[in-house]
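Complex 295.
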Amino acid sequence: MSTNDAPKPSEINLDNHPCFNKEACSTHGRIHLPVAPKCNIQCNYCNRDFDCVNESRPGVTSTILSPGQALAYLEKIMEKRDDIAVVGIAGPGDPFANAEATMETFRLVREAFPKIILCLSTNGLGLTEDYVKQLAELQVSHVTITMNGTDPEVAGKIYAWARDNTRIYRGTAAGELMIEKQLQAIRWIKQYGMIAKINSIIVPGVNDEHIPEIAKQVSGMGADIMNCIPLLPTKDTAFENLTEPDAKMRFALRLKCGDYVNQMTHCARCRADAIGKLSEPMSEDIHELIQSCSR
Ligand code: SF4
Ligand code: SF4
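Predicted structure with iron/sulfur cluster bound:
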């Protein structure tokens, strides 16, 4: 598709994104295409699990699809249902640790579905200005950056390591690298006219008191909305023995962060192959369909 053929922003109804507009939750759904298996960092809360139907959390997926398989799967889904308004790429690894597959998938989907909302979620490390420009040309409208600190010491406690090209960073150096890349990514996202969401994972005792600082900084950069997501202590991760933030901590934090930037309060902590309305669990027949498309 040439830039001239690309849909104009007005032809895509951005209000139908259920994550960004609570009112669209009961009428519109999203689909995540799991085309990005690798990651360029290791978060201390992440354990990616493939071929799983019963768990609902980021990093979990039934299978991995190539860009062509993802399009074939999407076409089958769109024949079956008329409520899918958003196609997103959110892992199970990071979209820009798998940049070729990510960009090819967006190109194929945009060509086949000119009016659908395109969305992505990344840790920001591999998101270069050139990719942001290409995303803007494809009318990818919603970009989420997960940012867990603006202080390298705090962020360094959350990332076990981060890999930039061939160099591995750990501890505070990893935190510093991630913060620099994430802030730069937010600047480009806004410069190229996209909607920027910031996800911050609330890790009790590590960054819970610091998260309002993130809100303050990103609000000054034009971030549109923030999603403070409670840690889901997950087996076989460094944070498996921490306690999940309770409602009181979540509420207090969102209230403080809300002084700076709008807060999302209805996140469902979705799988990397989530489909349908936000509350909809992965069904056996979709599990079978996606697996059949991966063969
Ligand atoms: Fe897992 Fe995402 Fe962190 Fe990568 S960026 S380690 S996929 S949570
Ligand atoms: Fe939306 Fe949250 Fe699910 Fe992402 S994880 S698709 S923001 S509800």
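The first helix runs from residue 67 to 80.
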